[in-house]
Write a structure and sequence with these properties.
The protein contains eight helices and no strands. The chain is an all-alpha fold.
Length: 165
């Protein structure tokens, strides 16, 4: 029997397996804590905007838009004059209307949720980018912390206020 043929490629001494498992748990814990920190920062920054009224183009595109009120067929919103260039935005507005009418809290809550998800995606993208072959030597050890910092900064930056509120 040839050595290593019956063992998985990652098999090693038990101490190495324990260290690898501990590292995976701490990496997983770091990822979860970073995600919670990003979501908490978003909620802390924007929670007071949930009751803000419809403003500017919200009046035309949400409050006074009959296409948003038509729930069947659901793809009708894709052909509306308002949302034909942004069908996903139109669909989320139509779903918001179907769920809560013109209650602004639902629209703001969905915007905040989308913003949090975008920040989480940004953190993952930055972390993976910093771990590529070209950047790993310089940023690999700090990839998690840098990704968290970038995502947090993007999450609470004042330029993002319009997209959430």
């Amino acid at each position: 029997m040839r050595e290593g043929r019956d063992q998985p490629p990652h098999a090693g001494p038990p101490a190495a397996d324990a260290a690898r498992a501990t590292g995976a748990l701490s990496h997983r814990a770091w990822t979860i804590l970073a995600g919670v920190a990003i979501a908490a920062a978003g909620v802390a920054a924007y929670h007071n905007s949930l009751h803000g009224p419809f403003v500017l183009d919200d009046i035309i595109t949400i409050r006074d838009n009959a296409d948003v009120r038509a729930s069947w067929p659901p793809w009708r919103i894709f052909y509306s004059r308002t949302y034909w260039t942004r069908p996903v935005a139109g669909l989320t507005v139509a779903l918001n209307y179907a769920a809560g009418g013109l209650d602004v809290r639902g629209y703001h809550a969905v915007n905040l949720a989308i913003h949090v998800l975008a920040a989480l995606a940004l953190a993952g993208l930055v972390r993976r980018s910093l771990r590529t072959d070209g950047l790993r030597a310089r940023f690999g050890r700090d990839a998690d912390a840098l990704a968290l910092a970038v995502a947090l900064l993007w999450m609470v930056h004042p330029l993002q206020t319009q997209s959430v509120t």
